[in-house]
Amino acid sequence: ASGYLNDTWIWNPGAGGAWTKSTKVGGPSARIDAVMVWYATRSVLVLFGGFDGTNYLNDTWEGTVNGPGTAVTWVQQSTYILSGGSVSAGGPPVRSGACMVYTATPYQYPDSSYTASHVLLFGGQNAGGYLGDNYTLTYFPGIFGSPAGYFWIPISSPGSITARANGVMTY
Q1: pLDDT in tens, 62-106
Q2: Angle at 71 between CA 70 and CA 73, to 5 degrees
Q3: What is the pLDDT of residues 113-135, one digit of tens each?
Q4: What contacts 86, CB < 8 A, 6 or more positions away?
Q5: Do residues 48 and 121 touch, judged by C-beta distance below 8 A?
């Protein structure tokens, strides 16, 4: 996609604050409208989805930041869906312009006694229009009979937030 970028910049709050373009090891393809958060309990960046000029995407990437002005190592993640007590490979439907936020508030995962910090994903858009679904993402250390990895869990949300894209969430 002409004009789309896949570079990584790191904010360094020291010395008055400055953006530094990081060297990159691996990484997602050029895209727009992806969402990214700092997953504090794992000390990594998590990037999801976007639009590459032709396709809406639903890939999940983990970026390890090795310090300001140094390399960010990106690795595409194999993700799982946990729904109704069963696990399968996959992730949320393709989308761009979603909202995503990290929260350290423990979330009680359905069908288990496991609680963890997590990332919340809401909405976005794809070729079918605006989306109003919710997913939580967490890194499970090999529970539910599956390998360690990132799990997307569809969640219902009380209330009536209408489907939308390009909103903002904060914690």
Answers
A1: 999 886 667 889 999 999 998 887 888 999 999 999 999 999 887
A2: 150
A3: 666 788 999 999 999 999 999 99
A4: none
A5: yes
Is the full-model pTM beyond 0.85?
A: yes
Side-chain half-sphere exposure of 89, counting CA atoms within 13 A: 3
